[in-house]
Amino acid sequence: MNTLRELRVGHRAIVASIETGTIVGQRLLALGIVPGTRLSVTKVAPLGDPIAIEFNGCHVSLRRDEAEGVFIKEETGSAL
Amino acid sequence: MLNENKPITIGVVGNPNTGKTSLFNCLTGLRQRVGNYPGITVERKLGTAFLGEQAVTLIDLPGTYSMAANSPDEEVVLDVLCGEMSLEQPVDLVLCVVDTSNLQRNLFLATQIADLGLPMVIALNMWDEAENRGMQIDVTQLSLNLGIPCIPTDAKRNAGLDELKNALKDAIQNKPKLNSLVWPNSVNQATEFLKKELGNSAPKDEARLRRILFDVDSILLRRIKMDAGAKKEIVQNARKVLMNDGLNPLAAEALLQYKHVGLMLEGIERSAVIRNRRTESIDRILMHRGWGLIVFMGLMYLVFQAVYSWSGPFMDLIDGSIGWLQDTAARPLESMPMLQSLVSDGIIGGIGAFLIFLPQILILFFFVSLLEDSGYMARAAFLMDKLFRWCGLNGKSFVPMLSSYACAIPGIMAARTIENPKARLATVLISPLISCSARLPVYILFIGAFIEPRYGAWWAGFTLFAMHLLGLLLSFPISWVLTRFILKTASSPFVLELPPYRAPKLGNVFNRMYLRGMDFLKTAGTIIFAMTILIWATLYFPRPESIEQETRASFIEEEASQKQISVNELETLLDDEGSEQGAALREKLTLTTETRYIEQSYLGQTGKFLQPIFEPAGYDWRVTLGIVSSFPAREVIISTMGIIYRLGDVDEKSDGLRDAMAKQVWQEGPRKGTPIFTIPMVLGLLVFFALCQQCAATIGVIAQEIGWKWALFSFTYMTILAWVGAVATYQIGMLFVS
Ligand SMILES: Nc1nc2c(ncn2[C@@H]2O[C@H](COP(=O)(O)OP(=O)(O)OP(=O)(O)O)[C@@H](O)[C@H]2O)c(=O)[nH]1
Questions:
Q1: Whether B250 contacts chain A with CB within 8 A
Q2: What is the rounded distance in angstroms from the CA atom of residue B443 to the CA atom of residue B421?
Q3: Contact residues on chain B for A31, CB-CB shorter than 8 A
Q4: Which of A31, B172, B392, B688 is spaced 20 to 30 Å from B189 by Cα?
């Protein structure tokens, strides 16, 4: 399955599952990135990492390694 | 139940950036006390609020997203709310501050806190923002659904405060509880199992047992005194109960609570999600690959200029006033030299030693508050993160490291803005390596005396630049080693919220500057003052009375033989008040006596004792003495050298001092007759000053921020590093020279 790491800027996806058992996974769940949440990648930092995502009207930045634990189903069509 | 003597304590909690501190300031005004929780870098902030006649204590707790405590900040929240923090009264009531535009996420934390059984009032803060975004929220229905009072507030414009105070006052009597989730049976079975198996040191209440059950690497579990393997197995078995019920134990809480919150919010918010267009358009520039970096550089240049240059006049003023005070206080004490020196050099000098840093601290915190409250700091961290993270730091290390180019002290204090405890610790430990402005005069002295005359302005400039880069370049690999092998603190993820841009409230900014300034004066100030007195004593004592006569006698003998006149003739000359020659001689004698005093002092004796250690760097005992005497404050080397070479008052640009250094030759040993200040030796000396922690105030501030253990560690590692650098430069350089 795809992970948030591979999602390109401007693309939308629905969260399928989160890798649990890690502190990052726990933090993402606490922020409300639960399965079923729609999110999109809005920005990539100048050096290629971290990325910024938007979900439920919140903007959050996270590192690509951390995004690896978010499994997604990409939606077709651009978010912007 | 209601004990009239015990004041009511209200814990103020909430997600970061919800305006918690603003609301706390609105409710308490200036009736605030700040400090630290002992042993950890977490700010402790208490205030008194009046609910009508009734005075209550408010605790401003660090912002957190969840009760799963993964950092010292979050542990404090958990401990205070559970009544486990010995310093605080158990909390009677919780004021949960939420961002109205983000109810769902904010209420997740509220449900977790309610799970602990605490009564709660909710402040729907940033109400104005939600309204501007076109959100419509039925507050009455929301309060009904949640089962607790929800009060719209705008901490920016002080709106809704009376209603909030009334609600808090009522809540103290009524103890309203949030409609919490009814846990599935399997969860109850699992906590029951934990209670039975984990033994006596385990918490007895269901709520905390649930934390152990749900949280990855729970702090509560770590505290239980039991074999680690056995603990792990018990928790795994408890989690199996959930798994058999079809629940993922490590996601169950979030899934169930978010569903529960979703149900309570049904029909409350009319519009689903309304994006913040304004923030998004600003971010199109500020987070842009090109423009974003340009704006960032510009802002950072401004911050640096402010800390570096704007503080100048204030520092001069403090310096001048302290100098005047020292002279004024010294005059009436002429007859008691020991007391005179203690009062003027020790006590007044000690006060000056920490006051001098206040302007830079206040200016930096002015900007740090603006950057944080406006929401920009998170963007800066986003832009810079990649540069820093390979060595265990993160994007938020930028501002502390940048400020350290002016002075490590405000820089170290600014490291508090770093949420990740490991990166915070590492940033504090490497900041003193960055070349601060106090090193500049030392560089100028040695480069101006030895590099420039021989190699010209270009190489002088290059050397100066290299010295400024050296510490920075070393700080990254050192941080890498520290975070990988030495620091045992757990690291926390870099999941960072990018809050909407908001116009900062100036009152909050000044409040923060004031509190940080007071904190510095009280904690680090005391340490720096005490260290200054101690250093004064090591420079003053033992001071045997015989020194003055001995020096005079040997001085007369020496001068007489040099001038080829008799001792008696010289003595007459020395005592001749009228002649110019006599005045010159007397000044020379004073300087010689001063040098003798430095030599005999405990610090001077240490210098002589340490001479063999600095021998491989090419230093004679005079240079070593200069180095040792500059450990309290690096720039002191210049005045010490002035005294040692009998020149009196000098600064980094004095030709006299430059000439004197150039003329120094080895008096004995294999290099007898050759100059001491060779190019390799000077370069090594520069490296030494670039890398060494010769600053008592920095040690004091590190002790304040992360404890004495780390302060000593930082001093030790930097001294060793500086020594190795100086010796290596000298030894390698000598290979080229000879
Ligand atoms: N528009 C608006 N802005 C607010 C309100 N309350 C606070 N702010 C602003 O929001 C920003 C953050 O406020 P803080 O009080 O520092 O937030 P906090 O929750 O204490 O943040 P942390 O200390 O980082 O957890 C500041 O710029 C405030 O001026 C409000 O009700 N409305």
A1: yes
A2: 34
A3: 65, 105, 495, 497
A4: A31
Please tell me whether residue B607 adopts helix, strand or coil conformation: helix
Whole-angstrom Cα distance, residue B416 to residue B400?
9
**In whole angstroms, what is the distance from residue B657 CA to residue B594 CA?**
17
The structure's pTM equals 0.85
Q: Say how many Å lie between the CA of residue B20 and the centre of ligand 1.
A: 6
Burial B550-572 (b: 16+ CB within 10 A, else e): ebeeebbeebbeeeeeeeeebee
Centre of ligand 1 to C-alpha A10, Å, is 29
Q: Is A29 on the interface with B (CB under 8 A)?
A: yes
Give the CA radius of gyration of chain B: 32
Asked if B104's CB is within 8 angstroms of A24's CB, the reply is no
For the CA atoms of chain A, what is the radius of gyration? 11
- Tell me which residue of B230, B229, B242 sits closest to B198, measured CA to CA: B230
Domains and CATH numbers, chain A: 2-74 (2.30.30.90)
What confidence category does residue A33 fall into, taking pLDDT thresholds of 50, 70 and 90?
very high
> Which residues, in sequence order, are CB contacts of B497 under 8 Å at separation 6+?
A31, A58, A59, A60, A61, B15, B16, B17, B378
Q: Is B99 in the pocket of ligand 1 (CB under 6 A)?
A: no
> Looking at residue B491, what is its pLDDT?
74
Which has more confidence, B594 or A44?
A44
- What value does the mean pLDDT take over residues A10-39? 90
CA dist list (Å): B338 to B396, B537, B546, B614, B642:
48, 10, 15, 32, 23
Q: Tell me which chain A residues have a C-beta less than 8 angstroms from the C-beta of B278.
A: none
According to the model, what pLDDT value does residue A78 have? 52
pLDDT (0 to 100) of residue A80: 47
Task: Residue window 505-564, chain B: list those with CB within 8 Å of chain A.
Answer: none
3-state secondary structure of B231: helix
Ligand 1: residue whose CA is nearest its atom 4: B156
CA B599 from chain centre, in angstroms, equals 36
Element (H, E) at A77: strand A70-78
Q: ipTM score of the complex?
A: 0.93
Given CB atoms, is B704 within the 8 Å cutoff of chain A? no
Q: Could you tell me how many residues make up chain A?
A: 80
For the record, the structure tokens of B215 come out as: 């949280």
* Chain B residues touching A26 at Cβ < 8 A: 66, 68, 70, 215-216, 250, 254
Question: For residue B446, which of B424, B463, B430 has the smallest C-alpha distance?
Answer: B463
Residue window 133-152, chain B: list those with CB within 8 Å of chain A: none
SS3 content of chain A, % helix, strand, coil (to 5): 20, 45, 35
pLDDT of residue B597: 78
| One-letter amino acid for residue B612 of the chain | P
Q: Comparing C-alpha atoms, which of B393, B386, B390 is closest to residue B425?
A: B393
How far does the CA of residue A5 sit from the closest CA of chain B (Å)? 14
CA distance B87 to B45: 12
Taking contacts as CB-CB distances below 8 angstroms, the residues of chain A near B294 are none
Residues B258-314: tens digit of each pLDDT? 999 999 988 787 665 667 788 889 999 999 989 999 999 999 899 888 888 888 899
- Residue B680 Cβ inside 6 Å of ligand 1? The answer reads no
How is residue B676 written in tokens?
A: 């001491």
The residue whose CA has the least distance to atom 10 of ligand 1 is B19
Q: Which two tokens stand for residue B422?
A: 């490991």
**Residue ranges in chain B whose pLDDT is less than 70:** 1-5, 38-41, 270-274, 570, 573, 648, 738
B248 in contact with A, Cβ within 8 Å: yes
Q: What is the Cα–Cα distance from B314 to B450, expressed in whole angstroms?
A: 33
